[in-house]
Amino acid sequence: xxxxxxxxxxxxxxxxxxxxxxxxxxxxxxxxxxxxxxxxxxxxxxxxxxxxxxxxxxxxxxxxxxxxxxxxxxxxxxxxxxxxxxxxxxxxxxxxxxxxxxxxxxxxxxxxxxxxxxxxxxxxxxxxxxxxxxxxxxxxxxxxxxxxxxxxxxxxxxxxxxxxxxxxxxxxxxxxxxxxxxxxxxxxxxxxxxxxxxxxxxxxxxxxxxxxxxx
Length: 215
What we know:
The chain is α/β, with parallel strands linked by helices. The protein has a single domain, classed as Uracil-DNA glycosylase-like domain (Uracil-DNA Glycosylase, subunit E), CATH 3.40.470. Helices cover 38% and strands 16% of the residues. It is built from eight helices and eight strands; from the N terminus they run αββααβββαβααββαα. It has a six-stranded mixed sheet, sandwiched between helices. A two-stranded antiparallel sheet has the order 4-5.
């Protein structure tokens, strides 16, 4: 792909390929310079899963594990998500999993790289990739996991806890709003963590009941 002048790269839209198939999108996303997050990330982490998935799960951004491995939801939060999907009778292989932001934003803390929430401008800059994924997969339902995913679709005014478990219509299609699985990992009390996990599984079961195609 030819170099895009910095002035033209206000968002990922400048880097979308003519062919909007998932394979072409994934290849083109590797060279995205639509915002500055690529500078400190190991690689672009694009979505993966069934190209005909009835459910698309949209997370916030890659974490440290995802940045190193180049795949979404492969770290501790991803392992918890896999368990919750199984408990909700949803086959992850039949879903499509992605993030609202495709590069890992982090700050150093000793030898660790700590997740930092993307700015609104970075969320907007990355949205063309998510829109293209939605158009390519055409899921029946989006599951929005956490604040960044919700902001990408609805803007900053949509509150997660006030709308959690609800299916809300958006321009991109019906969306189920819930928490990011990483939030469950931060619950220290065991009984509270179990309750939070059960509620998360309940949200996912609602998503499974909503779609018409088998998952």
